[in-house]
Amino acid sequence: MNTKAETIRNKIVTTADDLFYRQGFNHTSFSDIASAVGISRGNFYYHFKTKDDILAAVIEKRKVGIKQFLNEWDETIPSAKQRLNQYVDMVVSYQDNIVKYGCPIGTVCSELNKLKNIHYNNATEMITLFRDWLIEQFVLLGHGKEKAKHYAMHMLTCTQGISVIGQAFTDPAYIRREAQSLKDWLEKI
Amino acid sequence: MNTKAETIRNKIVTTADDLFYRQGFNHTSFSDIASAVGISRGNFYYHFKTKDDILAAVIEKRKVGIKQFLNEWDETIPSAKQRLNQYVDMVVSYQDNIVKYGCPIGTVCSELNKLKNIHYNNATEMITLFRDWLIEQFVLLGHGKEKAKHYAMHMLTCTQGISVIGQAFTDPAYIRREAQSLKDWLEKI
DNA sequence: GTCTATACGCAGATAGAC
DNA sequence: GTCTATCTGCGTATAGAC
Hints:
CATH topology of the largest domain in chain A: Tetracycline Repressor, domain 2
Number of domains of chain A: 2
Shape of chain A: elongated
Radius of gyration of chain A: 18 Å
CATH class of the largest domain in chain A: Mainly Alpha
Oligomer: homodimer
Largest sheet of chain A: none
Distance between the termini of chain A: 54 Å
CATH architecture of the largest domain in chain A: Orthogonal Bundle
Number of helices of chain A: 10
Structural class of chain A: mainly alpha
Helix content of chain A: over 70%
Number of strands of chain A: 0
Largest interface: A-B, 38 and 38 residues
CATH superfamily of the largest domain in chain A: Tetracycline Repressor, domain 2
């Protein structure tokens, strides 16, 4: 039972996820989501009581997705160094969206912070997932915990910076170049 | 004549500048600005016709400010290398605001992009001012135009990344550490 | 120039019919 | 479960008195 409701619910979350990314959370209205999903605004409230509830579901969905592909990388990519390169490649393969809408994680964190939204800390945990995974990889490469943490933070710094500047200048070539620099840095440490 | 109106106008722009930074553009209402300035909403429209007009004035003010202190650096700091270090130091000295609200330029560009605001390109020109100045410094250091441009873009990447991650983790120590890394990088190239 | 009053639309949210 | 109708508040913007 509840399969149809679950389906609609999922559709709402997926649509909201997309719209929050492209238009921002605050700028996306219930009507936007409802019409994109193809249901009435009234029906909407059967599935979610408030806009913040949808946001929580979207963040949760993204977290699950992040955990999934990080696990998949752990299982399918043999070495830590290759996995770190895969992290950088992810940015490159996402370049078309980045130049248009920035980083889906960085931009939402920045927005929720300014809105003083209750789910801000929840959102930053998306970054924490990446940070902890990156630290793990550097530890596997033989670095001490402190150094691994600093390296991980540097990786986050560069990928977020790439997203902001790549978007501001709408420049995929820049993204590829800067990503390559980061890979070069990875080789040297 | 018009001095009083000019004063009020400036006060509005200064206040809006601050509120747009701390709360975001979309999330800041006319009432917010009016009450912060200490005038009625009605009076407001004597000075600015639309919210976008205030935004344009805020961006213009910021641009003027950026040009001013870049010029000042050019005139008071003897070497290009020292000026590049000053650019990094600026981020460090701004750390308290960054951990709370992010980069005043990066966050507004990101937001205006998602809002499809007409002044988005105008806002990105704030970054262009820094980019062109940075390129100049690297050229003065003896690098070719292409290389200077890539170095400049890398500086932008790091400072923007520092802002996003510094804000997300509310971590001034991280900002100082990563800024030092960037200075180390400057020494090596 | 600055105010109060007010128009207008849209957003979030609810009630109740089907 | 899904709909239409509706409430309420807020935000932008205007009109007009002082």
